[in-house]
């Protein structure tokens, strides 16, 4: 059986006759639907087993867990290219509190390089492979190396982690699910995002034996208003000044070493960075440590990680004047769901979609949205998460910073906003990659915030970005 490119199941593209989301014919029983879903889940498992991935049952025998692939210990230094891991172990709500609603936004799973990144890294690789002789033995594998990665699409690990995320959500929030309250799922229109959403729904259905099978109900065209993509602020500035400054600090010694080991390669510092990206891209695609990882030290990868921190901080985060405003639309949608009130927003929202209960219901207990890392960073910054005491220094990393891209937006990153009923009062709790956020801007720093106070704390979003959105176009 051929190994699929990053899809456990065929991706859903809005077709109601798709086998995984087909509505039952009149008279079809829930048990029949469960058998269908169980069969499809088995097909996916067989595909993975035949592709060499190791599955194992949990102690309760209720879920499938993929064994962690053979990745180096420093995979958590790969910034936005790190595969997902739980930053902290999930903590249940405090005694006396119960979850009544959860809103999830998740980045697509691990992928191949984008087409632009692939061009840059293959250009750098061509330089490194053009030399006659390698004086550094660690480079000699390049004589036989052939680059064979695809572009843009999910890799198998990315598909699997989305599937597992869907399983985990059902297991964690099963009490919120019934026949009339099945998760409402949306995805931004990129193929890798839609495929991630489809795999998430498959994992959710598998975890409950196919009794509750959500579908991807809304796919948002990325050429239109889209709160799950960061493409609506043409006047937003660049992060080039900051990333270039850091590149000139951390890369020259590495470039000199590579050029000494490959006389005639004439690599630049930009080439060096692109060669370093081959370590995460090859590792997540092959699910084994890439030979390129062994070309660099842990200290050098710490510099690589900071490059990612600066990229996101000054791209759509706090360091970009028009970064946070790109997260305002999603926050206003979140507030609408939490309060059960219509969306109030004049930024990125699609008013046609958000004004219809078919495409933006307010009566669900679980919402799952699928997005991109840059958009999630904008949302975090607009909300007030991961705020720094001082802007990130492009020449000197602060070892105590909490802005760590690998903690914030690795592949399959996820934020869960839980609405809690606590002794007659509603609260909000936010987890990013399972780590409870302190919410310094609201509450007492324990991670709980009374719902009304949380709404009030989002004044930037509720004011449509205090005029920043207009600056995106003027």
Automatic annotation (TrEMBL):
Residues 15-25 have a biased composition (Basic and acidic residues). The keyword Magnesium does not apply. Residues 1-25 are annotated as: Disordered. Keywords: Disulfide bond, Glycoprotein, Hydrolase, Secreted. GO terms for cellular component: extracellular region. PANTHER family: 3-PHYTASE B (PTHR20963:SF24), MULTIPLE INOSITOL POLYPHOSPHATE PHOSPHATASE-RELATED (PTHR20963). GO terms for molecular function: acid phosphatase activity; inositol hexakisphosphate 3-phosphatase activity. The lineage of its organism: Eukaryota, Fungi, Dikarya, Basidiomycota, Agaricomycotina. Transmembrane segments: none annotated. Its main location: secreted. Monomer. It catalyses: 1D-myo-inositol 1,2,5,6-tetrakisphosphate + H2O = 1D-myo-inositol 1,2,6-trisphosphate + phosphate; 1D-myo-inositol 1,2-bisphosphate + H2O = 1D-myo-inositol 2-phosphate + phosphate; 1D-myo-inositol 1,2,6-trisphosphate + H2O = 1D-myo-inositol 1,2-bisphosphate + phosphate; 1D-myo-inositol 1,2,4,5,6-pentakisphosphate + H2O = 1D-myo-inositol 1,2,5,6-tetrakisphosphate + phosphate. The active site is at residues 108, 373. This is Phytase A. The keyword Cell cycle does not apply. It comes from Gloeophyllum trabeum (strain ATCC 11539 / FP-39264 / Madison 617) (Brown rot fungus). It is found in: Secreted.
